[in-house]
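Appendix B. Raw example, untouched.
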Amino acid sequence: MRRVIVIAVVAEVCIVALLLHNYIKDFLFGHPWWQAFLAAIPGIAVPILAWFELQQAQESDRLRVEANELRVEANGHRMRANTLQEEQNRSVAEIARLQGQIAQLTRELDSERNKHLQQIAANTQRPLSEAETNARILKKYVGRRAAVSEDHGYWGGGAVIAEVNENNILTLFVPAGYNSSQAWGQPVRCDKLHVVEVPKDGCDVQISIVERYGTHTTYGEARSWDERNIQPAPTSMKRGENVFSAQYRKDGSPKLRNIFIYASTDGSPNYTMVAMEEQKETNSWYSGKLDIEKKFAVLQAEWSDQGYRHIGGSASGNLNLFIRK
């Protein structure tokens, strides 16, 4: 627009100069040169200014064109950047999807591998021997009674399944006072017996012994497997300091019973427990602290069933004895 105005002004000046040529000539002849110069300045300045304006307009047009080109190029780069961002987002999503598939495949492969390993282990596992099979069955009945038989006879009243050790050796325990005056235990290898998980004669399981393992071991008057280490104290054994005493009276009767516990004389952690009735010693046992505590509890329970009640006593040792009143 500015270019058009400049061209129009220049054209107008030229037309005016042509039309007024004679008048201008007469004016210049009739006036001094400096006046003519001053009068000509506007005519000279206008074309010069118009030329500069034209140059400026052309430069502005050039810059505008370049700006438009740069703007178009920037828009192209922006569109390219958006396209690349979209491609990157799609690539990230695809990578995440592939990672998920890889993780899923890894889990499936691990699961399949574990199944095969278990199958291989099951196929290569050594089958249980007869001793291991019998030991596994007998461990379910530890502490319970079994009906026991051998080729030469039947154990009347059976025996307690006391323990089954890591070598698959069973120990049968017959307590004192049931069908035997002395407690005893007999080891048997688990591959030298037969087991039938059918109750018989009040026992939970049946055991048929093919061959005993070694000789039996006597346990004195033990009434249970836990009492097997409690041995009757020899009458000649010396007794140390009295560390516990308890007295019991039978309901409706003047009869008295006493329990005395003595420390050892050799400094060992063993004790001697003595049972008395009417000031007469009826029995005595010698063993360690824990076994004496267990024997005291059993003896006190037996006396309680017979109608005896605790009526007094004293203690000075570190035995953990429960007094049943």
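End of appendix B.
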